[in-house]
Amino acid sequence: MDDNTILVVDDSIINLNILENLLDGYDVIETTNGKSALSILEKEDVHLILLDIVMPEVDGYEICQKIKENEKTKNIPVVFITAKTDEDSIEKAYDVGGSDFVTKPFKPKELLARVKTQLKIHKMEKELRLLALIDPMTKLYNRRYFTSITEHSISFAQRERQELSVIMIDIDDFKNINDTYGHQIGDDVIVLVANTLMKIQRKSDIVCRYGGEEFVILLPNTSLENAKKVAEHARKEVESLSVSDSSQQEISFTISLGVSCVNVDDEETIEKSLKRADDALYNAKKLGKNLTFAL
Fold this sequence. Notes:
This protein has 295 residues and is an alpha/beta fold. The protein folds into 2 domains: 5-128, Rossmann fold; 143-294, Reverse transcriptase/Diguanylate cyclase domain (Alpha-Beta Plaits, 2-Layer Sandwich). It is 47% helix and 21% strand. Strand 7 and strand 8 (214-220) form a beta hairpin. The two termini are 48 Å apart.
């Protein structure tokens, strides 16, 4: 079963054993206190949390608040399991971010049904969030995702003193392709370039459709020289491609690429590096297109 890891937090060993037996078939992680739960969430990929309210040191309400304040864990559904039945306690459980509330002693079938429902909702929401970051035509990440991931990437590069490079890519004479052969051929060209970039990308690279006929590649732990090699590989691969129109005429096309490396020593922003890559791309166009230029 995918997305089936459940973190159970309860200070009673008896309750933990009951829940573990009941949740047979799920990947269950157990802990008896909130601080340990937060530590586990930093290390493990958890899809649902069953959380007791009354616990020593830190209660379930505070733990839930911390979970919802953390960017990494805020989307994990929390189901409170508690002996508390008063309306104020129930209201507070939802106010701090709880997704559901089950009272003790719980009915096994009811609890399992609620667990199944919350896991299903979590999976659907996860898929929707992913769709919001994917370009529907090319299946590449979109500009929104690129903007969100670069902040993390540059912070990591600066902290670890690692090089981080960027490649800006533009399909040459794309407007002419659209005007001459039609938008369907233009779309075919975009998809073919996207597929080529995905094919040549290294495991750590992040390829995005930046907009229209533009693409961008983020290359962690990569020097300017090595980024230029990746860019040249992409350029040559695309140069060998073609698409066919309705009359089976072969239509070739090329790309131009601009390369830059973030200056982590000066704590340069990704915006400055992107601007330099864009300037390099402009130079590649100016010098005749189907070129790689680095700044």
